Amino acid sequence: MANCASCAHQRRICPEGCVMALHFPRTRTQEFQLVNRVFGVSNAIKILKDLDFSQQKETVEALIWEAEAWEQDPICGPLGLYERLEEQILMLKEEIQMLKEEIQMPGEQNPVIQERGFDLERDNGHIHVQQQNVANPSFVQDLERERTHGVRGFHHQEQERGNNSGR
């Protein structure tokens, strides 16, 4: 029987029923070394020996994950990762709230829509479009096309219009 990463590290022959052989074959030497540096061989064996195989498998993956977290952040380890993720979540929630407020501002107009000569009025959740000047009458058709074909069709037509005007 080939030595597992743990037994090879300890320079011994893998005994019958070696709990580490199931989870740390020689192909996972780097992962074993991470776990060994953080937890130690004897602690890892103690953690795994009383668990059934499926629990051992999940526990080994958790040990590897935690060891990698400690390697990346030796001061805070997994807590540091958690805190960074928590900070990102808070920033994203703030951004979502700002975007929601921007969408709901009744007096504010989208500059592109204003540029095209339209005024939007909100009434009980519905948006009414009123054309202020007729400088660009195809815009109503564009809005209708966007509503039926989606944004992609609208942008595609804008690109075509821009390409045709440059010729």
Automatic annotation (TrEMBL):
InterPro entries with a match to the protein in the record: LOB
One Pfam family, short name: LOB
LOB domain boundaries: 2-103
Family the entry assigns: Belongs to the LOB domain-containing protein family.
Name of the protein described by the UniProt record: LOB domain-containing protein
Species for this entry: Actinidia chinensis var. chinensis (Chinese soft-hair kiwi)
